[in-house]
Amino acid sequence: MSQATTRPGIAAGRLDAATLASNFADLHPPYDAHEALVAADRCYFCHDAPCVTACPTSIDIPMFIRQIQAGQPEGAARTIFEANILGGMCARVCPTETLCEEACVREAAEGKPVEIGRLQRYATDTLMARPGHPFSRPEPTGKLVAVVGAGPAGLACAHRLALHGHDVTLYDARPKGGGLNEYGIAAYKAPNGFAQAELDWLMGIGGIRLRTGMALGREISLEKIAAEFDAVFLGIGLAGVNALSADGAALDGVGDAVEFIAGLRQAEDLTTVPVGRNVVVIGGGMTAIDAAVQSKLLGAETVTIAYRRGRDRMAASRYEQDLAASHGVAFRFNVQPVAVHGEGAAREIELAYTEEGRDGLVTTGETVRLPADEVHIAIGQKLDGAPEGLTLYHGKIAVDDEGRTAHPKVWAGGDCATGGDDLTVTAVAEGRDAAESIHRALSG
């Protein structure tokens, strides 16, 4: 999609710099010490805590909250980082409302859970502000591991391997490491360069070498690195994007929501980021929500999320839906695009009404048109180029419970591999657990 700012309907600088700075400020301001103590006092410190079971990385939540209550936020952070080395980012972006906080006993009893995510952020931010790294690395083992993909899964894997004394070369196709954390998360969820600050902090353990601009299948091959290294972990994510199958999909103004979010994340000056006057986002997941909310924050007059099924089928949580609505984003359910209309550039989008039929989703024959000079496509991502020699299952790399692939020296995790939900915290868990499996294999 063209980023030209002179095309009618799409322009940069719809809002002044001060307004944009306010719009993209921290979604949830951090606790101060007193607020953290008050929040920690609400925890029941359950023995068989359901919040721990609900956490994909199994952080000992009652323990770290008790440590905060005892005035030991650094100790609390250590408890968190032992399970989840990206606990700082996860505290900001995890859907806690459907994970640990939904399982909280306070939520069931009172309808108001302990704010676990904000307490986790308080602890991790406190420790990360201190000099040094909380974990020390043992003597090198002499084993070399290649980790391809410096996103959440790859970073968690690389750190755990370094913690065991192995030397890691971390490859990433982009100019910066961080993956989804750097390029794919709404700017207001992790402002002030937090993703890169966390990456630098994580690398402080030593034993990890980052090489950017190195893509699998382009600068490096799986066959070559599998021969050069003792083990390989793939955390390459889903770089491919499902295309919109509708007339007019190639018109100027129609583009990938992931690319829109990435461009916004990397913009040094938000007044230079173009946005449509009337924006329509196609999809029902977190990418759709993030693209829609940020379009509104950039100054779009109308923003609509169009989803082909009912509200209850959306992948985005109800909390995220309500957040979007609070920013003025409108929702259209049971509609799917059939055409984008315009002479060379998008002007309207035509949506067909849908319903669940005996054979699945069908259109009713009715349509509606909405003004749309910018259309963001967020209908899912896919593996971009299957690595050679690996088995795929439903379009992802097939792995066992430890992250092992069909290749004896290759493990995989995160969005590119079969497994759990496509969440940052799940990717961290899979990268961490694969590292433990790799360590056991290298240790004989």
Give a description of the structure.
The protein has helices at 17-23, 33-40, 50-54, 61-69, 73-83, 87-93, 100-103, 105-110, 116-128, 152-163, 180-183, 194-203, 222-228, 257-266, 286-298, 318-326, 424-442, and strands at residues 10-11, 144-148, 167-172, 208-212, 231-234, 240-241, 254-256, 275-276, 278-282, 302-307, 330-333, 335-341, 348-357, 360-371, 374-377, 381-382, 392-393, 396-397, 410-412. The protein is of the alpha/beta class. The chain folds into three domains: 10-25 and 242-377, FAD/NAD(P)-binding domain, CATH 3.50.50; 33-128, Alpha-helical ferredoxin (Fumarate Reductase Iron-sulfur Protein, Chain B, domain 2, Orthogonal Bundle), CATH 1.10.1060; 144-239 and 383-442, 3-Layer(bba) Sandwich (FAD/NAD(P)-binding domain). A five-stranded parallel β-sheet has the order 4-3-2-5-19, sandwiched between helices. Strands 7-15-9-10-11 form a five-stranded parallel β-sheet.
Layout of SSEs?
Layout: E1 10-11, H1 17-23, H2 33-40, H3 50-54, H4 61-69, H5 73-83, H6 87-93, H7 100-103, H8 105-110, H9 116-128, E2 144-148, H10 152-163, E3 167-172, H11 180-183, H12 194-203, E4 208-212, H13 222-228, E5 231-234, E6 240-241, E7 254-256, H14 257-266, E8 275-276, E9 278-282, H15 286-298, E10 302-307, H16 318-326, E11 330-333, E12 335-341, E13 348-357, E14 360-371, E15 374-377, E16 381-382, E17 392-393, E18 396-397, E19 410-412, H17 424-442
Parallel strand pairs: 2-3, 2-5, 3-4, 5-19, 7-15, 9-10, 9-15, 10-11
Antiparallel strand pairs: 1-8, 6-16, 12-13, 13-14, 17-18
Helix pairs in contact: 2-4, 4-5, 4-9, 5-9, 6-9, 10-17, 14-15, 15-16
